[in-house]
Write a structure and sequence with these properties.
7 helices, 24% strand, globular
Length: 241
């Protein structure tokens, strides 16, 4: 495929936040609060898909993982600690530079690439993740198809994205940006995908949905799995048939 999925303005927006990415109180604070919940879901899906031991420290030992839209490595690093051979891809070169520097400081061997996923010389991977990314790309159908092309037979894909609802418009876009919970210009509500729309894109790419779970606010923890999908949701998929 030659169709570009990267929006230059989106890459510039997130690239400008690169130096601050690993600061849990900085511009990416919301991601730091989301990440433990996302990781809990990812671990649950990994154990279910490969029938692993929930107590194992390295459930991805011997497996490869690709994180697309990896930012500065907030998810790629935990995947590496789970034992995976990890590759991260991001549209912003600034993010990749920050990701490489942080991984080196942590003693983690992660391969990082900046650029268009369809133009990179990537193999296929056992696990493909892309969290809070599909709503930022130029062509979601092409993007999902590119992710599917990188998923190995028998592999697992996990995505998360905001839902296009009145609640998400009021809370994730207008309120969150107004109070500084996320940087201004981070979200374009019109680009959010409803679950049925994302599921259709997955089907068109030859994938089948195996799980869908809401990611909802929690007074105690900030966010929790399950409950309402009105703001955000996660899906797991595999090759159909």
């Amino acid at each position: 495929m030659t169709t570009a999925t990267i929006k230059a303005d989106e890459a510039a927006h997130f690239g400008a936040l690169a130096a601050d990415w690993w600061d849990p109180k900085g511009s990416s604070a919301m991601l730091h609060r989301l990440n433990p919940v996302r990781l809990s879901y990812i671990r649950e899906q990994i154990d279910g898909h490969w029938h692993g031991d929930a107590r194992a420290r390295r459930p991805l030992e011997g497996k490869s993982a690709l994180d697309v839209g990896c930012g500065a490595g907030l998810l790629a690093e935990p995947l590496a600690r789970m034992g995976a051979s990890v590759t991260g891809v991001d549209a912003a070169p600034e993010n990749i530079a920050a990701a490489r520097a942080h991984a080196e400081g942590q003693g983690l061997a992660i391969t990082y690439h900046a650029g268009e996923i369809g133009a990179l010389p990537l193999a296929t991977f056992d696990l493909v993740t892309s969290m809070e990314v599909v709503e930022h790309v130029a062509d979601p159908a092409v993007f999902i198809a590119e992710l599917a092309a990188r998923l190995a037979p028998g592999g697992l894909m996990i995505l998360s994205t905001p839902n296009r609802t009145l609640a998400s418009k009021l809370l994730l876009v207008e309120a969150a940006e107004r109070i500084g919970a996320v940087p201004r210009g981070t979200h374009d509500w019109d680009q959010f995908l409803r679950p049925d729309e994302l599921e259709a894109l997955l089907r068109d790419a030859g994938l089948e949905l195996i799980d869908r779970t809401g990611l909802s606010p929690s007074a105690a923890k900030g966010f929790k799995l399950g409950g309402s999908e009105a703001l955000n949701y996660l899906v797991s998929a595999r090759h159909a048939g």
